[in-house]
Amino acid sequence: MLSLSLPGGEPLKVLCLGAHCDDIEIGCAGTLMTLQERHPDSRFDWVIFTREADRDRESRIAAARIHGPDGAAVEVLDFRTSYLPYEGAKVKDRFEDIKARLQPDLIFTHRLEDRHQDHRLIAELTWNTYRNHLILEYEIPKYEGDLGQPNFFVPLDSEIAARKLEILMTCFPSQRSRAWFSRDLFQAHLRLRGIECNAPSGNAEAFYTRKISI
To answer: Where are the beta strands (DSSP E) in the chain?
Structure first.
């Protein structure tokens, strides 16, 4: 498989956008840990758009596990979960505020075809706001069954894949009662994408990229 690499060893500015606490961790935690290893001193900014009791604390703990205690700036906004499309103008205003502060090298966001209304709005506004950036759309397995055919893969070594699973299963006690929030599901997702890109460890995360130039 043809590989493309970011400039070796240089620090990056990375913006991670998620509709809910745990979205970023599910979608791209392994890739974030891989980038941090390959690009020391990179800056990671997380913006999570909805707030729920206890879940913002869980996500802050998870971010610290991924990046180290001082490795990421995590901002949790106070929009209502499941209602983002109905507050679209206010959400767009926050995007403009973020853009005024942050001009990243790389952006992680939700997939445009995601059937969850909150996820989809964040993806749409990412593209609407950042017009000349490298954007990778992550995917989340869930009830809607909207996984597709990604075109960008990040193989994960075995240690990072195991760390991702351990972070998900220990940092989010509020989600453990959900049938889909299980180690088996997250492991299967990593294995499926690992097979598709022939990852040496058998594990990978996958993304959708619409525009890329080299």
So the answer is: 13-18, 43-50, 72-79, 106-110, 134-138, 152-156, 203-208
In this prediction, residue 55 carries a pLDDT of 85
Please state which CATH class domain 13-208 belongs to.
Answer: alpha beta
Bridge partner list, 13: 43
End-to-end CA gap in the chain: 17
Strand 134-138, strand 203-208: pairing: antiparallel
127 closest CA partner among 10, 196, 209, 44? 209
Q: Write down the pTM of the prediction.
A: 0.95
Distance CA 178, CA 171 (A): 14
| Closest by CA position to 204, among listed 21, 72, 42, 29 | 29
Mean pLDDT of 120-124: 98
The residue extents of the domains of the chain are 13-208
- Phi first, then psi: give them for residue 144, nearest 5 degrees: -65, -20
pLDDT tens readout for residues 132-164: 999 999 999 998 889 999 999 999 999 999 999
